[in-house]
Design a protein that fits this description.
The protein is mostly helical and about 130 residues long. The protein has one domain. It has eight helices and no strands. Helix 1 packs across helix 5, helix 1 crosses helix 6 and helix 5 runs antiparallel to helix 6. The longest helix is centred in the N-terminal third of the chain and has 20 residues. The model has no long low-confidence stretch (mean pLDDT about 85).
Amino acid sequence: MIVVKYILPALRVAITRELVQKYGLKKTDVAEKMDVTPAAITQYFKGSRGDVASSVIKRSSKVMELVSDITFDIALGESPPDLQLLKMCRACRQIRAEGLICDLHKESMPSLNWVETCTCSLGLVELNKEQLE
């Protein structure tokens, strides 16, 4: 739930802003390339969507590198959707592995506030295990 409600919109905000600011695309073109409505793009820019976790993902240089990679692919329009989805999944896994999502979990579920180590730290173990295989 946290990923869908906070993380994915925050990633979309970062991607949207980079497509407009770095690549000079019009918002209507961005909406078409990202397969969202122009209204969604406007909400990303106004901060009414994705704003809660935007600062969270910006804390990670690795996540922002992944965002830039995704943005580059979208701007060129040469990357198939399944590859873009894979890269979005990598960004989400990186956010989880770095424990960036833990504060959002605790806000969403106050009963977790007493837990010293968020289960998201297990994501780092899983990520490292996959890299070894």
